[in-house]
Amino acid sequence: MTICRTKAALTDLVNEWHRAGLTVALVPTMGYLHEGHASLMRIARKNADRVVVSVFVNPTQFGPNEDYAQYPRDEAHDFALLEREGVDAVLAPEPIEMYGEDATVSLTESELSKVMCGAFRPIHFAGVLTVCLKLINIARADVAVFGQKDAQQLASLRRMVRDLDVPVRIIGAPLIRESDGLALSSRNTYLSSDERTRALVLHEALDEAQAAYESGETDAAKVVAQIKARVAAVPGTRTDYVVAVDADSLRPVTKLRPNTLLALAVHVGKTRLIDNHIL
Ligand code: PAF
Protein backbone atom coordinates (compact mmCIF):
# COMPACT_ATOMS: atom_id res chain seq x y z
CA MET A 1 0.00 0.00 0.00
CA THR A 2 1.36 3.41 -0.94
CA ILE A 3 1.03 6.03 1.80
CA CYS A 4 0.54 9.51 0.33
CA ARG A 5 0.97 12.51 2.60
CA THR A 6 0.56 15.00 -0.24
CA LYS A 7 -2.17 15.52 -2.80
CA ALA A 8 0.41 15.48 -5.61
CA ALA A 9 1.78 12.07 -4.57
CA LEU A 10 -1.66 10.52 -4.92
CA THR A 11 -2.53 12.31 -8.14
CA ASP A 12 0.78 11.18 -9.72
CA LEU A 13 0.05 7.59 -8.73
CA VAL A 14 -3.53 7.53 -10.05
CA ASN A 15 -2.44 9.23 -13.26
CA GLU A 16 -0.04 6.29 -13.80
CA TRP A 17 -2.88 3.82 -13.17
CA HIS A 18 -5.17 5.64 -15.58
CA ARG A 19 -2.42 5.66 -18.25
CA ALA A 20 -2.28 1.88 -17.80
CA GLY A 21 -6.04 1.72 -18.43
CA LEU A 22 -6.99 1.00 -14.81
CA THR A 23 -10.04 2.45 -13.03
CA VAL A 24 -9.94 3.97 -9.55
CA ALA A 25 -12.42 3.79 -6.67
CA LEU A 26 -12.20 6.23 -3.77
CA VAL A 27 -13.45 5.63 -0.23
CA PRO A 28 -13.33 8.91 1.74
CA THR A 29 -13.09 8.41 5.52
CA MET A 30 -12.18 10.30 8.66
CA GLY A 31 -10.24 7.29 9.98
CA TYR A 32 -10.80 5.35 13.20
CA LEU A 33 -11.82 2.66 10.79
CA HIS A 34 -14.27 -0.13 11.61
CA GLU A 35 -16.09 -2.94 9.82
CA GLY A 36 -18.49 -0.44 8.23
CA HIS A 37 -15.55 1.23 6.48
CA ALA A 38 -14.10 -2.18 5.53
CA SER A 39 -17.39 -3.04 3.81
CA LEU A 40 -17.07 0.17 1.71
CA MET A 41 -13.56 -0.89 0.65
CA ARG A 42 -14.81 -4.32 -0.46
CA ILE A 43 -17.54 -2.66 -2.55
CA ALA A 44 -14.91 -0.30 -4.00
CA ARG A 45 -12.73 -3.31 -4.91
CA LYS A 46 -15.63 -4.91 -6.82
CA ASN A 47 -16.21 -1.72 -8.81
CA ALA A 48 -12.70 -0.66 -9.88
CA ASP A 49 -9.18 -1.94 -10.51
CA ARG A 50 -7.52 0.16 -7.81
CA VAL A 51 -8.81 1.28 -4.40
CA VAL A 52 -7.79 4.54 -2.74
CA VAL A 53 -8.88 5.42 0.81
CA SER A 54 -8.52 8.87 2.33
CA VAL A 55 -8.03 9.20 6.07
CA PHE A 56 -8.60 12.84 6.92
CA VAL A 57 -10.48 14.34 9.86
CA ASN A 58 -11.85 17.28 7.93
CA PRO A 59 -11.86 20.41 10.10
CA THR A 60 -14.24 22.35 7.86
CA GLN A 61 -17.21 20.06 8.52
CA PHE A 62 -17.11 20.53 12.32
CA GLY A 63 -18.90 23.47 13.96
CA PRO A 64 -17.11 25.55 16.60
CA ASN A 65 -18.67 23.59 19.50
CA GLU A 66 -18.35 20.16 17.90
CA ASP A 67 -15.87 17.34 18.47
CA TYR A 68 -13.10 18.08 15.94
CA ALA A 69 -10.35 18.10 18.61
CA GLN A 70 -11.67 14.99 20.39
CA TYR A 71 -12.60 13.04 17.24
CA PRO A 72 -10.90 9.64 17.72
CA ARG A 73 -7.72 9.08 15.72
CA ASP A 74 -5.55 5.94 15.43
CA GLU A 75 -3.44 5.95 12.29
CA ALA A 76 -1.50 2.74 13.09
CA HIS A 77 -4.75 0.79 13.51
CA ASP A 78 -6.21 2.40 10.37
CA PHE A 79 -3.20 1.59 8.19
CA ALA A 80 -3.20 -2.04 9.44
CA LEU A 81 -6.88 -2.38 8.50
CA LEU A 82 -6.22 -0.83 5.09
CA GLU A 83 -3.35 -3.29 4.46
CA ARG A 84 -5.57 -6.17 5.53
CA GLU A 85 -8.26 -5.03 3.08
CA GLY A 86 -5.75 -4.89 0.24
CA VAL A 87 -6.16 -1.15 -0.33
CA ASP A 88 -3.74 0.15 -2.97
CA ALA A 89 -3.14 3.67 -1.66
CA VAL A 90 -4.06 5.87 1.27
CA LEU A 91 -4.14 9.65 1.29
CA ALA A 92 -3.48 10.90 4.82
CA PRO A 93 -2.68 14.63 4.60
CA GLU A 94 -2.45 17.34 7.25
CA PRO A 95 -5.13 20.09 7.02
CA ILE A 96 -2.53 22.60 5.78
CA GLU A 97 -1.69 20.28 2.85
CA MET A 98 -5.37 19.84 2.07
CA TYR A 99 -6.44 23.49 2.23
CA GLY A 100 -3.30 25.62 2.16
CA GLU A 101 -3.26 28.86 4.17
CA ASP A 102 -5.89 30.81 2.35
CA ALA A 103 -8.62 28.69 0.68
CA THR A 104 -11.63 30.91 -0.04
CA VAL A 105 -13.88 28.74 -2.21
CA SER A 106 -16.38 26.25 -0.80
CA LEU A 107 -19.47 24.48 -2.09
CA THR A 108 -22.96 25.37 -0.97
CA GLU A 109 -25.97 23.14 -1.47
CA SER A 110 -29.15 25.02 -0.78
CA GLU A 111 -31.89 22.47 -0.13
CA LEU A 112 -30.92 18.95 0.99
CA SER A 113 -28.22 20.25 3.31
CA LYS A 114 -30.53 22.64 5.16
CA VAL A 115 -32.88 20.07 6.71
CA MET A 116 -32.34 17.25 9.23
CA CYS A 117 -28.70 17.36 10.44
CA GLY A 118 -28.16 20.55 8.42
CA ALA A 119 -30.64 22.42 10.63
CA PHE A 120 -28.47 21.60 13.68
CA ARG A 121 -25.05 21.66 11.96
CA PRO A 122 -25.23 24.70 9.64
CA ILE A 123 -21.73 24.49 8.11
CA HIS A 124 -21.42 20.70 8.10
CA PHE A 125 -22.53 19.83 4.57
CA ALA A 126 -20.61 22.69 2.92
CA GLY A 127 -17.51 21.22 4.57
CA VAL A 128 -18.39 17.65 3.50
CA LEU A 129 -19.23 18.52 -0.11
CA THR A 130 -16.14 20.68 -0.51
CA VAL A 131 -13.73 18.10 0.88
CA CYS A 132 -15.38 15.26 -1.07
CA LEU A 133 -15.16 17.18 -4.35
CA LYS A 134 -11.51 17.92 -3.61
CA LEU A 135 -10.82 14.25 -2.80
CA ILE A 136 -12.62 13.04 -5.93
CA ASN A 137 -10.52 15.49 -7.98
CA ILE A 138 -7.23 14.62 -6.27
CA ALA A 139 -7.85 10.87 -6.67
CA ARG A 140 -9.19 11.33 -10.23
CA ALA A 141 -11.83 8.85 -9.00
CA ASP A 142 -14.05 6.95 -11.43
CA VAL A 143 -16.16 5.67 -8.55
CA ALA A 144 -16.65 6.92 -4.98
CA VAL A 145 -18.24 4.82 -2.25
CA PHE A 146 -20.18 6.26 0.73
CA GLY A 147 -22.21 4.58 3.46
CA GLN A 148 -25.99 4.72 3.63
CA LYS A 149 -25.57 5.35 7.37
CA ASP A 150 -25.03 9.02 6.47
CA ALA A 151 -28.10 9.09 4.24
CA GLN A 152 -28.27 12.89 4.05
CA GLN A 153 -24.58 13.07 3.14
CA LEU A 154 -25.12 10.49 0.40
CA ALA A 155 -28.17 12.31 -1.02
CA SER A 156 -26.29 15.65 -0.96
CA LEU A 157 -23.26 14.12 -2.71
CA ARG A 158 -25.47 12.60 -5.41
CA ARG A 159 -27.02 16.04 -5.91
CA MET A 160 -23.57 17.67 -6.13
CA VAL A 161 -22.47 15.16 -8.79
CA ARG A 162 -25.71 15.69 -10.73
CA ASP A 163 -25.76 19.50 -10.54
CA LEU A 164 -22.04 20.06 -11.16
CA ASP A 165 -21.63 17.25 -13.73
CA VAL A 166 -18.82 15.70 -11.71
CA PRO A 167 -17.49 12.74 -13.72
CA VAL A 168 -17.70 10.16 -10.94
CA ARG A 169 -20.13 7.36 -10.14
CA ILE A 170 -21.40 7.46 -6.55
CA ILE A 171 -22.17 4.12 -4.91
CA GLY A 172 -24.23 3.98 -1.71
CA ALA A 173 -23.26 1.07 0.53
CA PRO A 174 -25.55 -0.66 3.05
CA LEU A 175 -25.44 0.40 6.70
CA ILE A 176 -23.52 -2.08 8.86
CA ARG A 177 -24.66 -2.87 12.42
CA GLU A 178 -23.24 -4.53 15.52
CA SER A 179 -24.84 -7.90 16.31
CA ASP A 180 -27.24 -6.13 18.71
CA GLY A 181 -28.33 -3.67 16.02
CA LEU A 182 -26.33 -0.54 16.93
CA ALA A 183 -25.25 1.19 13.71
CA LEU A 184 -21.43 1.18 13.43
CA SER A 185 -19.92 4.62 13.96
CA SER A 186 -16.52 5.90 15.04
CA ARG A 187 -18.42 8.01 17.60
CA ASN A 188 -19.75 4.87 19.37
CA THR A 189 -16.42 4.91 21.16
CA TYR A 190 -17.66 7.94 23.16
CA LEU A 191 -20.50 5.87 24.74
CA SER A 192 -20.24 4.46 28.28
CA SER A 193 -21.57 0.90 28.55
CA ASP A 194 -24.82 2.22 30.05
CA GLU A 195 -25.21 4.77 27.23
CA ARG A 196 -24.45 2.10 24.67
CA THR A 197 -27.40 0.06 25.98
CA ARG A 198 -29.63 3.16 25.82
CA ALA A 199 -28.43 3.85 22.27
CA LEU A 200 -30.06 0.62 21.08
CA VAL A 201 -33.37 2.50 21.15
CA LEU A 202 -32.47 4.19 17.85
CA HIS A 203 -32.52 0.99 15.86
CA GLU A 204 -35.31 -0.59 17.94
CA ALA A 205 -37.61 2.37 17.23
CA LEU A 206 -36.76 2.16 13.50
CA ASP A 207 -37.33 -1.62 13.44
CA GLU A 208 -40.76 -1.11 15.02
CA ALA A 209 -41.61 1.58 12.46
CA GLN A 210 -40.52 -0.70 9.63
CA ALA A 211 -42.68 -3.51 11.06
CA ALA A 212 -45.68 -1.15 11.30
CA TYR A 213 -45.16 -0.15 7.65
CA GLU A 214 -44.90 -3.79 6.61
CA SER A 215 -48.19 -4.53 8.32
CA GLY A 216 -49.92 -1.74 6.37
CA GLU A 217 -49.33 1.51 8.29
CA THR A 218 -48.63 4.38 5.85
CA ASP A 219 -49.38 7.46 7.98
CA ALA A 220 -45.95 9.16 8.16
CA ALA A 221 -46.89 11.59 10.98
CA LYS A 222 -48.16 8.73 13.14
CA VAL A 223 -45.03 6.62 12.61
CA VAL A 224 -42.73 9.60 13.28
CA ALA A 225 -44.65 10.32 16.51
CA GLN A 226 -44.28 6.68 17.56
CA ILE A 227 -40.52 6.78 17.01
CA LYS A 228 -40.23 10.05 18.98
CA ALA A 229 -42.23 8.62 21.87
CA ARG A 230 -40.22 5.39 21.91
CA VAL A 231 -36.93 7.31 22.09
CA ALA A 232 -38.21 9.86 24.64
CA ALA A 233 -39.10 6.99 26.99
CA VAL A 234 -35.39 6.18 27.39
CA PRO A 235 -33.79 8.40 30.06
CA GLY A 236 -30.66 10.32 29.09
CA THR A 237 -31.70 10.76 25.45
CA ARG A 238 -32.51 14.01 23.64
CA THR A 239 -33.89 13.91 20.10
CA ASP A 240 -32.74 16.45 17.49
CA TYR A 241 -35.15 15.16 14.83
CA VAL A 242 -37.13 12.22 13.52
CA VAL A 243 -38.28 12.49 9.88
CA ALA A 244 -39.97 10.55 7.12
CA VAL A 245 -38.68 11.97 3.81
CA ASP A 246 -38.06 10.88 0.25
CA ALA A 247 -34.58 9.30 0.24
CA ASP A 248 -33.42 11.27 -2.84
CA SER A 249 -35.01 14.72 -2.41
CA LEU A 250 -35.18 14.61 1.43
CA ARG A 251 -38.60 16.27 1.13
CA PRO A 252 -41.15 15.20 3.78
CA VAL A 253 -43.71 12.57 2.81
CA THR A 254 -47.18 12.28 4.29
CA LYS A 255 -47.64 8.64 3.18
CA LEU A 256 -44.93 6.07 3.72
CA ARG A 257 -43.90 4.34 0.49
CA PRO A 258 -40.90 2.52 -0.94
CA ASN A 259 -37.79 4.76 -0.91
CA THR A 260 -39.05 6.67 2.13
CA LEU A 261 -36.14 7.44 4.44
CA LEU A 262 -36.96 7.20 8.13
CA ALA A 263 -34.11 9.00 9.86
CA LEU A 264 -33.31 10.27 13.32
CA ALA A 265 -30.60 12.04 15.29
CA VAL A 266 -30.50 11.54 19.02
CA HIS A 267 -28.12 12.63 21.77
CA VAL A 268 -27.33 9.80 24.15
CA GLY A 269 -25.57 11.52 27.03
CA LYS A 270 -23.09 13.84 25.26
CA THR A 271 -22.87 11.73 22.10
CA ARG A 272 -24.97 12.56 19.06
CA LEU A 273 -25.95 9.46 17.07
CA ILE A 274 -27.79 9.07 13.77
CA ASP A 275 -29.53 6.06 12.25
CA ASN A 276 -32.00 5.39 9.44
CA HIS A 277 -34.01 2.86 7.47
CA ILE A 278 -35.03 3.13 3.84
CA LEU A 279 -38.43 1.50 3.43
O1 PAF B 1 -18.58 10.33 6.30
C1 PAF B 1 -17.46 10.78 6.63
O2 PAF B 1 -16.68 10.15 7.33
C2 PAF B 1 -17.06 12.19 6.18
O3 PAF B 1 -18.15 13.05 6.20
C3 PAF B 1 -16.36 12.20 4.82
C4 PAF B 1 -17.29 11.71 3.71
C5 PAF B 1 -15.12 11.34 4.86
C6 PAF B 1 -15.92 13.63 4.46
O4 PAF B 1 -15.01 14.13 5.39
What does this structure look like?
The chain has 279 residues and is of the alpha/beta class. It has nine helices and nine strands. The strands form two sheets. It has a six-stranded parallel sheet, sandwiched between helices. Helix 3 links the parallel strand 3 and strand 4 (89-91). Helix 6 crosses helix 7 (151-163) and helix 8 runs antiparallel to helix 9. The termini are far apart. Pantoate binds at residues 28-30, 58, 61, 128, 131-132, 150, 153.
**CA distance, first residue to last residue:** 39 Å
Number of strands: 9
The rough form would be described as globular
- Following the backbone from N to C, one meets helices and strands in this order, namely EHEHEHEHHHEHEHHEEE
Tell me which ligands are bound: pantoate
- Runs in which pLDDT lies below 50 for 5 or more consecutive residues are none
The largest sheet has its strands arranged as 1-4-3-2-5-6
Largest β-sheet summary: 6 strands, parallel
Instruction: Indicate the radius of gyration in whole angstroms.
Output: 19 Å
Mean pLDDT equals 97
Helix residue percentage: 25-40%
Strand fraction equals: 15-25%
What would you call the structural class?
alpha/beta
The number of helical elements comes to 9
